[in-house]
Design goal:
There is one protein chain. The chain is an alpha/beta fold. It is built from six helices and 16 strands. 19% of the residues lie in helices and 34% in strands. Helix 4 runs parallel beside helix 5. The longest helix is centred in the last third of the chain and has 13 residues. The protein binds FE2/S2 (inorganic) cluster. FE2/S2 (inorganic) cluster binds next to loops.
Length: 258
């Protein structure tokens, strides 16, 4: 059973309407966190466990012993999260789920759509530590939602696309991938975001014989494999179901139809 504890909030600020960064101090949690994992956060003092929200590890600072989350306001739970203030304590369970596989000295491309970019940032940090060349492609609605400074501080190359054209490439991030990235330069691809976007990324990888991993976003009531709320078949021909919270959220491209 993963640990549950209360953690001191250092910051909870909007980047844009409905998009927030929350940072908390977590000395006991930080050493156990791997890229791709998530935490389950109780956004208010109510004891209703159904209100817990799964949020990806967006960034982890092992020196400062802090964890940062990037979250979008999409309902009651995440709306309650916006009320959390600095110096509050928040109930968090984790880390949960499996993690991305990391291999040293690779040329890797990361493709994130919207808030789905979150797990790719901590991933980029860890990949840079093992001497990978990292390019992060990030599709967002507008320039306020971009995270250029954080990604460049990590040492990764950042290629943004915005739907309104306010910064970077105008249009879909998958079009930027097709137009500006030479598949011959890629050893491995990681992606997270809307399934339609990930489907196009997987098709690009398959056409060019590139391996990769994706992270699925699912509703998760319990986060620990108990409620069956997140089950799905990876392939339409499968008879077995996986629990995204426990068997995932990370899966290999060649294990899933998407
Ligand atoms: Fe309960 Fe996955 S969220 S089984």
């Amino acid at each position: 059973m993963p640990g549950v504890d209360k953690y001191l909030i250092l910051k909870n600020q909007p980047l844009d309407k409905d998009l927030y960064e929350m940072e908390f101090l977590a000395p006991n949690l930080v050493p156990t966190c791997e890229p791709g994992q998530f935490i389950h956060l109780l956004p208010s003092s109510t004891l209703d466990p159904l209100l817990r929200r799964p949020i990806s590890l967006y960034d982890v600072d092992r020196k400062k012993e802090t964890i940062t989350l990037l979250y979008k306001v999409v309902g009651k739970g995440t709306m309650l999260m916006t009320n959390v203030e600095s110096n509050d304590y928040v109930d968090i369970m984790g880390p949960l789920g499996n993690n991305f596989t990391l291999k040293a000295d690779q040329n890797v491309v990361l493709v994130g759509g919207g808030v789905g970019v979150a797990p790719l940032v901590y991933l980029a940090r860890r990949l840079k530590e093992i001497d990978c060349k990292v390019t992060l492609l990030h599709g967002a609605e507008n320039q306020n939602q971009l995270i250029k400074a954080r990604v460049e501080q990590i040492g990764a190359s950042y290629k943004p696309a915005t739907m309104d054209g306010s910064y970077g490439y105008e249009g879909f991030i998958t079009d930027l991938l097709l137009e500006e990235i030479d598949p011959r330069d890629i050893d491995f691809i990681y992606t997270c975001g809307p399934e339609l976007m990930m489907s196009e990324v997987v098709s690009f990888a398959n056409r060019n014989n590139i391996s990769g991993q994706l992270s699925l976003e699912e509703h998760m009531a319990c986060g620990i494999g108990a409620c069956l709320g997140c089950v799905r078949r990876l392939r339409s021909s499968d008879t077995n179901y996986v629990k995204v919270c426990k068997d995932g959220p990370v899966f290999n491209f060649n294990d899933i139809d998407i």
